[in-house]
Amino acid sequence: MISSDTWTLLAESFWKILLPGLKMTIPLTVLSFGLALVISILVALIQFANVPVLKQISRFYIWIIRGTPLLVQLYVVFFGLPSVGVMIEAFPAAVLVLGINEGAYCAETMRSALEAVPSGQMEAGYCCGLNYVQIMRHVVLPQAFRTAVPPLFNSLISMVKNTSLAANITVVEMFMATQRIVGRTYRAMPLYLEVAFIYLIFSTVLTWLQRYFEKRLNAYGGLR
Amino acid sequence: MAMLEIKGIRKTFGDLEVLKDISFRVEKGDVISVLGPSGSGKTTLLRCMNFLETADEGTIIFDGEEFKLNGISKADQARIRRKTGFVFQNYNLFLNKTALENVTLGLTAGRKIPKEQAEKKGLAMLERVGMLDRATYYPNQLSGGQQQRVAIARALAADPEIIYFDEPTSALDPELIGEVLNVMRDLANEGMTMVVVTHEMGFARNVSSRVVLMENGVIVEENSAKEFFENPKEERTKEFLRLKKEERE
Description:
- The structure holds two protein chains of two kinds.
- By secondary structure, chain A is mainly alpha-helical.
- Chain A is 80% helix and 0% strand.
- Chain A has helices spanning 4-48, 54-67, 70-80, 90-116, 119-127, 132-162, 174-185, 188-217.
- In chain A, α1 (4-48) crosses α4 (90-116).
- The termini of chain A are far apart.
- Chain B is α/β, with parallel strands linked by helices.
- Chain B contains nine helices and ten strands.
- Chain B has a six-stranded mixed β-sheet with strand order 6-7-8-3-9-10, sandwiched between helices. In chain B, strands 2-1-4-5 form a four-stranded antiparallel β-sheet, covered by helices on one side.
- The longest helix of chain B is centred in the last third of the chain and has 16 residues, at 174-189.
- The interface between A and B is medium-sized, with 24 and 31 residues.
């Protein structure tokens, strides 16, 4: 059974782990995912609208980012770029890399969601006298977002956990805070389980949020 | 002067020549039924006339302005489309909009008409097709016939000079066809100019003023509805009518 000093350790360390979670992990996730969403919508729209040159650049971006490890990308930006004179602080570097990385995956999610909107919707829009931008804004994008919500939440949840990699570039988020306590106490098992539990709570809240969003978007009776 | 005239439309998909030099004209108040077996090019013709497909050759004269079908600018396309309505076989209502929003979107977003004014118009159009009590319903809460009536209201909202119908009842269950045809008949009686691609022989005979029979990308016969059914000129028309009659029996 769990001894009383383990309980004391867990109780004492809980806030010390949760606090960096609230101050670092969550802002890191929110900012990075915001950046990823902006990138993904742009990249998906470029491909959907078949814009020459920009489309090739988009494919190249997705190819590079999805083809290389996130950890390596973090190292290149934080440890590599200074050697060519580009210094970025740890936190903004983490936001940048996490955002650009997840943006590539979300872009494919958004592209497939856009392509899943029936072509008749576009034609009907033209026949009503709307132009391309108006059709995208009022008809196609809202429907695509509905389709994209579940996979986007997938990405968001995996991003919460990916923020732990930022510990490698000196961002003191939840995981690094835990490592430090382990370093002092040598109690790896309970402490790493504790931080895992806190990640689980964060992910669970997001899962609820996803359900709420889907319900709201289903107000129009579900698209199909 | 004809309100709408098309001259020399050609369209190929790969090796398949779907439209071979088609010309015809529409006068104000005409209700033209375009008949023909599947694959004869009827739908493609209609889609070329509203620029949903780009014809390889041919011109369109609309209200006295002439345009090349394969060279018309986006702006001119939009301008002509604002004077036309289009009703699709599969309704194509905006799935994320209510019935009323479907009718008003072209007015509010497309023409920048104030929302209040657009809604007033939208409700009037829904009433015209007997769908006022479903104004707040989303498309997937409506039957096929109801969706098609909303689609007709949407086409009417822009006060079009002409409405194109692309097999408006072909996707409907037999018991729902009547409600849509009734709305179309009312429109015809009110003097709306319509081009209707259809398989509904009753509509072609009793409602339309003229009938065009197409086969293999050409017009076989163009005639007044009465003459077409009672005294057809072409052998092929007689055969087509005989086959249709057998189908019904």
